[in-house]
Amino acid sequence: MTFSVWLAFAAASVVMGLIPGPGVVAIVGYALGSGRKTALASVAGMTVGNAIAMTLSLVGVGALLAASALAFSVLKWVGALYLIVLGLYIFFKTSRATSAEPKTDAISPRPHFSGTSPSASFTPRPSSFTYPSCPSSSMRTAVIRCRRRCSR
Length: 152
Known about the structure:
By secondary structure, the chain is mostly helical. The chain has helices spanning 3-18, 22-34, 36-59, 61-67, 69-96, 109-122, 124-133, 137-151.
């Protein structure tokens, strides 16, 4: 990667980072509702999730997703299934709570670290930015070779 390409990527990353998304809204909500420890655990989870997304991108997942419509479709359906399961979990968890008085206990930091990591890794906004911007050249070469072999 040349310096000018890296500089453009870094500038775009800063702009994407400054635009608040659902992760920022969640972290602010955790900070207001449960305190600094939970918010910092959520920030750490987002950081780990973004590092996972970047690592997947550098390994070549972007090139694989660009080359294979099937792989891209599988990733979309897995993401949709994850959101459905998460929504059902929250729906049934809240429907079981029959208490007339809402619970206002602070949330422990651990579940929010483990909850924000996959969210940051596979959220469409950062993934759609990092996967195509850093496809691995070795993976791209392998995909091109595979396409040539399959087309014979």
